[in-house]
Amino acid sequence: MSRGATLLRRFRDLLAEIRPERAFGPRDKIAVKLHVGDADSYTTVHPQFVRALVERFDASDAFVYVVDEHRAARSAWKRGYSRETLGAPVYPISGVVDRYLEERRVDDSPYFDAIQVAGMVAHADGLIVVSHAKGHASCGFGASIKNIGIGCVAQSTRNHIHTFEGHDGWRHEVVESAAVPHEALSAGVARGRYFSAALARSAHEVLRGLPAEKVLCLNVALNVHPYCDCWGLSSPAFVPDIGLFLGNDPADVDEATLLAVQEAPFLPAALPEFLPPAAAAETESGHRLERMHGKNPWYAIEEFRRLRAGPPERE
User: Fold this and answer.
1) Contact at 8 Å (CB) between 124 and 100?
2) Pairing mode, if any, of strands 126-132 and 29-34?
3) Quick one: which of 240, 255, 112, 268 has its CA closest to 175?
């Protein structure tokens, strides 16, 4: 038994080895996007892991600050997130009334006319995304891409992305004329494909203009339960604690996490009784999160990578 073998100590040792702070400038403004949960949630990322990251910048003049959705940020202290515990101040990501925003026009997607990026991220020099890995009822899986695509935008953009859960026919004429098939848009959820595509496009827009080396993603695969933390509750984990995943590319970090969640021992007794047994539901991906939610958890990762790669070159 050794304190040096604990996950937190090993994380600090890893940070000391790779020194992620070297990618940022000495006076950079660095936003740390953290989901602080709500109401009765208690399985969000522990403040100690955030503080370990923030402390890497103590010797520099960089301004590091923690951000989340404006309503959640106001009550973050109730769940242990404060300057005293994190080593950095906690701010509403888009101002106290969700009006500190940068609107960006979108001409290449059937899902958006515009995306409103939260000002505390849009005007930052770098972004550290700290995500609790868990299931998600709309896209199967929530971690880095979800934390960026829904967590770093205005409430109006967030609400708009959620319309693709039930498919109200928004811009149906545009979608029908698109070059990719969208036949299921108004009829069903298509295993989360359209929600995931909108989510990925939003995340891609949030990161536009940020150098890749100044984006750092940490997925915390502890207390991995079926639902998003925004529900304001916690439920038993359906796999044992797995660990931490760190990297610059949110798709790569999410992929590694998603594979680990699939490979971990399964604890079916932890699931709410209304979720289907993991071996019973039909899937496209075979992933246990799709068996729970009926949503393919790979869609957002695949779409984000497609967007990052850009349009194919014409011969």
Assistant:
1) no
2) parallel
3) 112
From the number of C-beta atoms within 10 Å of its C-beta (0-12, 13-18, 19+), residue 84 rates as: exposed
Terminal CA-CA length for the chain: 61
Is the CB of residue 120 less than 8 Å from the CB of residue 100? yes
What DSSP element (H or E) covers 252? helix 250-263
pTM flag (> 0.85): yes
* Residues 279/285/289/291 CA torsion (nearest 10 deg): -40
- Structural tokens at position 292: 């729970």
3-state SS, one letter per residue, for 80-96: CCCHHHHCCCEEEECEC
Read off the pLDDT of residues 129-176 as tens digits, 9 standing for 90 and up. Answer: 999 999 988 888 999 999 999 999 999 999 999 888 754 343 344 445
